[in-house]
């Protein structure tokens, strides 16, 4: 079995090294015939059919973690489908983005969905397949291109926990990704679609370690970031490079890149009251935020996941709600800053407050919106934007009468930390 695998792997490496124009397709020789459910072969390759499964779907919400850091092959297994079938009320998807560090109005997001529109209502109402590959591209002049291609079958390979290279393809859309986790984590998302006139690639070379909702835990790590919501963040920050041609226009830039996947065993709208998420980089800091209120939650919890790395070293990767506060900022005279938010509240930015512990203090970040890249302006928005932050040391006098920076102010260690971000909000409560 080992030798059977080796040959295609070597072939892929050789093609990658020679910079083949499209990312090479993995040989699918070991796949079983197309069946009703998601099928996993002996070699850990998955096939997802395009029609809705009639029956119950089972989700996985944890992962065995016998070591305190994930091995390169476990890391790749984070990309495995997390449901055994896609019925009308579940979803599973793979998300990639890059935003330009020079001008955050330039961005590209690519998402590979396996979901009905009943489970995730932000998909196209008339989609003909549960498998769709989407792209959102924003240009500096304000133009946003959003489009998708339905697939007839999807494959996800190399994610059985023994490989360091893998791939995903939504056939025959021309959308796919290739991944390698050794010697470093790298993803190439490639698109070759005549149908929507998009050609090119998005490359992520990770600059920081992976992020699980609550970090790596002993024996088993939780992947359920909030009730019924699964999340793994293989690439919290990366050197992202976009080189695409979109409907005749060239789009090329570099900046912070990101990859995660999320899934659920029930419809999105039954889980979410509000959902804030984003990622970005400012100075040496790579950040990811997630803050979520669950619909009809009797415990009144705020579900958060906090991630900060400095120069590639993780400072926090945890889900304790005391470690991160995310609050909307509204323009004067609007409800944009209301918290908890209601449908139609459109913020002009967010305040983030990361607790990095007594030694370091707090990383405080203001996020301000630039381009609206996706969304309906009511229930959902995805923006690119700018970040301004500072690290505030645990001062002895921060609540005192004069905490100004006059003299040798010791509160703000670093001022003018600036950067760019991609972020979202979903608000479902009327
Ligand atoms: C789904 O399965 C149920 C029970 O097996 C069956 O009664 C029903 O007709 C099926 N629906 C479709 C659309 O196949
Ligand atoms: C899909 O599976 C989930 C989880 O098992 C179940 O709760 C739900 O009722 C199923 N939905 C349909 C439409 O069969
Ligand atoms: C779906 O609807 C959109 C607009 O509502 C339309 O542009 C598109 O062509 C439709 N797609 C199909 C497959 O009918
Ligand atoms: C904006 O840029 C895009 C991509 O280059 C181009 O297709 C579009 O025509 C431009 N729009 C305007 C109003 O200049
Ligand atoms: C969920 O999916 C969205 C894509 O719509 C992605 O932007 C986000 O990072 C994911 N977050 C979580 C916490 O699941
Ligand atoms: C949440 O609660 C409201 C009213 O309390 C109810 O109308 C709604 O059906 C509930 N939603 C879910 C998903 O339980
Ligand atoms: C629930 O949380 C909200 C927001 O933090 C707060 O305003 C409210 O008082 C809390 N309600 C209860 C019953 O604890
Ligand atoms: C963030 O915005 C607030 C005002 O809303 C301001 O007081 C604070 O200084 C800003 N922080 C930074 C780092 O710019
Ligand atoms: C704060 O400073 C005062 C006077 O400089 C000192 O007496 C006090 O112990 C300090 N408190 C802490 C918590 O460091
Ligand atoms: C400010 O404090 C730093 C150390 O925290 C010290 O090196 C520097 O000399 C001080 N500057 C002034 C003007 O007091």
From TrEMBL:
Database matches in Pfam families: AsqO_C, DA_N
Stretches assigned to the AsqO/PenF-like C-terminal domain: 270-393
Residue ranges constituting the Diels-Alderase N-terminal domain according to the UniProt record: 81-263
Coiled-coil annotated residue ranges, if any: none
Record carries keyword Signal: yes
Secretion signal, residue range per the UniProt entry: 1-22
Keywords: Signal
Name this protein carries in UniProt: Hydroxyneurosporene synthase
Source species: Penicillium salamii
Lineage, opening ranks: Eukaryota, Fungi, Dikarya, Ascomycota, Pezizomycotina
């Amino acid at each position: 079995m080992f030798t059977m695998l080796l040959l295609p792997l070597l072939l892929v490496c050789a093609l990658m090294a020679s910079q083949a124009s499209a990312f090479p397709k993995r040989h699918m020789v070991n796949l079983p015939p197309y069946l009703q459910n998601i099928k996993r072969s002996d070699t850990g390759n998955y096939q997802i059919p395009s029609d809705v499964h009639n029956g119950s779907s089972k989700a996985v919400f944890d992962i065995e973690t016998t070591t305190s850091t994930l091995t390169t092959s476990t890391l790749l297994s984070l990309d495995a489908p997390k449901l055994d079938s896609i019925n009308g009320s579940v979803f599973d998807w793979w998300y990639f983005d890059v935003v330009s560090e020079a001008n955050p109005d330039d961005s590209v997001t690519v998402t590979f969905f396996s979901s009905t529109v009943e489970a995730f209502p932000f998909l196209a109402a008339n989609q003909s397949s549960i498998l769709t590959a989407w792209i959102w591209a924003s240009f500096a002049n304000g133009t946003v291109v959003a489009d998708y291609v339905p697939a007839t079958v999807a494959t996800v390979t190399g994610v059985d926990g023994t490989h360091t290279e893998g791939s995903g393809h939504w056939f025959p859309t021309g959308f796919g990704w290739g991944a390698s986790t050794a010697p470093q984590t790298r993803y190439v998302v490639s698109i070759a679609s005549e149908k929507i006139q998009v050609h090119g690639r998005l490359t992520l070379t990770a600059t920081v370690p992976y992020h699980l909702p609550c970090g790596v835990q002993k024996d088993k790590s939780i992947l359920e970031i909030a009730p019924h919501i699964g999340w793994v963040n293989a690439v919290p920050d990366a050197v992202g490079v976009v080189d695409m041609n979109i409907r005749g226009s060239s789009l090329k830039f570099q900046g912070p890149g990101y990859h995660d996947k999320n899934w659920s065993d029930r419809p999105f709208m039954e889980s979410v009251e509000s959902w804030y998420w984003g990622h970005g980089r400012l100075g040496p800091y790579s950040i990811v935020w997630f803050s979520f209120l669950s619909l009809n939650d009797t415990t009144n919890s705020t579900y958060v996941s906090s991630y900060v790395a400095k120069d590639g070293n993780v400072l926090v990767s945890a889900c304790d709600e005391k470690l991160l506060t995310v609050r909307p900022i509204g323009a004067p005279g609007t409800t944009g800053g209301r918290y908890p938010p209601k449908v139609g509240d459109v913020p002009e930015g967010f305040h983030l407050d990361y607790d990095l512990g007594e030694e370091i203090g707090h990383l405080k970040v203001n996020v301000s919106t630039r381009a609206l890249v996706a969304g309906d302006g009511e229930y959902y928005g995805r923006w690119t934007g700018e970040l301004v932050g500072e690290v505030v040391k645990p001062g002895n006098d921060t609540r005192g009468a004069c905490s100004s920076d006059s003299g040798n102010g010791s509160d703000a260690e670093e001022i003018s930390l600036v950067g760019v971000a991609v972020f979202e909000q979903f608000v479902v409560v009327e």
